[in-house]
Amino acid sequence: MAASTSELPSTVATVAAATVENLRFSGTDYIVFTLMLSASAGIGVYFGFFSKSKNTTEEYLQGGKKMPTWPVAISLVSSQLSGVAMMSIPAESYTFGFNIVFIVMAMIPTVPVLIYIIVPVFYENNVSNCYEYLEMRFNKLTRQLVTITFIMNQFLMLPVYMFVPSLAFSQVTGINIHLINTVVSSVCVFYTMLGGIKAVVWTDVVQGGVMLLSVVLVAILGTSHTGGLSKVLENASEGGRLDFNFGIDPRLRVTFWSGIFSGLLMWTGKVGLDQSCVQRIVSLPSYTHAKKSLLIAGIGFLFIMIFTCFIGIIMFSYYFGCDPIQAGLVSKPDKLMPFFIQDIMGHLIGMPGVFISCVFSASLSSLSASLNSFAGVVYFDYIKPHIRHTDARANGIMKLVIIVMGAYCILGGYMVQNFNSIIQTMWTITGINTGAVVGVFLLGMFVPRCSAKVAVTGIIFSVVAMLWIIINAQMNFKAGLIRYDVLPNGLDQCEARDFRVILNSINSNTTTPAHTMEAPPQVTTAFGSNRDFSLYDISFYWYKVLGAILVFAWAVPMSYVWPTDKEEKQNPKLYSPFVRNMLNVPDPVVEMEELPLKSSDLKAKENGTSQDA
């Protein structure tokens, strides 16, 4: 812990290390945590060595297209709940209020969009890799552009997935962050490499159970320690954390409108148009199973994520008037959650271990799914066209790709440790291309007259424009023209509430507080702005929406400049069922409800390449 507070005055760091010595892992906590890792590794060993399944790429990446509905649904939920979500979302509620719940609520309109607009197109076209659709609808260049953005996102995000829980573990044990990151990332690489998609899904089931148990326990115990639900709501309301913002100014950090629209774009992109999730959806036997799985996943996601958001409100109410961040015990909001857990659960044998297992479970599920899909995309899009393909060779290469990316995740932790607000950093980075990716998929499904040239130039236009906007926005941050100061808390009630650890830190802090730079007279804050409107000042939560809008803003007029070839016949199944109905195009004769995805053998024959070539 002392290492994590090195930015603070040395006296505070020393006192912090001394006063929270009792907030440490016990032997039981280490056992609980080790059991979770051992269970994950054991599942990988089982599916890698003892499961009676064929050693084919279809089996490794899609479980033979025979995956059961409930495990896939739980896996989809688990993979969306990364360690970043478990640590940073409560921190966001603690510092900026409960408006972030609107992003979670956006899952409600997202599920029908996936079920009735996007997933049917994948099943009707027998797509096993969502980027195949772009080649069918447009051309190979469009597919390559989008897979490049997928690979870039994975390179940027995978180190974050594992570093955040390592940070939490270090906070409560004092063990070096990078040592933890190395050990746990290695375990994840081990079971993902050995067991393929089956290991990913079934470890997600185990890890999902740990997450659900932990989140519910933290919410119940935190509420109880605060004085009951009414006291939680009273303190949160008094502290301004329950002031919902319905303002339409896009410069406000998060409002109802930015939460719903950006959440809709994000969840549509992450669940329905990202190969790490699509791979699991199309591993189900039929479209009927996929609908059930998505519905279950949506309900489960809402339940656990609303709890996660509310934990931030519980934390604020518990520390209302006695902020451990101001006291110097916690260096930044992203580190507050493990401190809170040890505060309310440290006396319960094994409970801190359960929570840290929860955070790692969330990250392991995200990392394993991403590694598995990443290996598949890299192999089939960039390696297979240049080698003689066999299933054994393909599986060996994909396992090697997973090992290399695991090593990269470990090294990437050294960069992630310098991030200030992790959730803001992730939204900003993914804002560069996520809107363009979602936009081009929707363009293909909704705009029949859009040609391949229009799609490719639309992606480039959106990415370049968003990169320009984000770079200028970061320059505004650096110049102090944008400052997201958090909602106030204080230290005036520490003595009355008998927070001894925090009081000791405050009383021992005899250093003069560091001078903070005065804000310029005109500044954009999280809750308002007195500056003239500038596109560079908009909230980072709008980036994904703006990126998708830019694709359509370019593509619709340009589709009249570069129309599709009149002699080129488009397959109507490439459009969403909603669009086909408007165009009076008849549905396929085969009932989609029972339509399975075709096997890789059939695809290979259609491509003129045998699986045994």
UniProtKB/TrEMBL annotation:
UniProt keyword annotations, A-Z: Cell membrane, Ion transport, Membrane, Sodium, Sodium transport, Transmembrane, Transmembrane helix, Transport
Pfam families per UniProt: SSF
Bilayer topology annotation: Multi-pass membrane protein
A molecular-function term among this protein's GO annotations: symporter activity
UniProt xrefs under CDD domains: SLC5sbd_NIS-SMVT
UniProt keyword Transmembrane helix present: yes
Domain of life: Eukaryota
Transmembrane portions of the chain: 30-49, 70-90, 96-123, 144-163, 175-194, 201-221, 254-273, 294-320, 340-364, 397-416, 422-447, 454-471, 541-562
GO biological process, any: sodium ion transport
Compartment(s) of residence: Cell membrane
Cellular component annotations (GO), alphabetically ordered: plasma membrane
NCBIfam families to which the protein is assigned, alphabetical: sss
Family the entry assigns: Belongs to the sodium:solute symporter (SSF) (TC 2.A.21) family.
Classification via PANTHER family: FI02923P-RELATED, SODIUM-COUPLED MONOCARBOXYLATE TRANSPORTER
Protein name: Sodium-coupled monocarboxylate transporter 2
Gene: LOC4801822
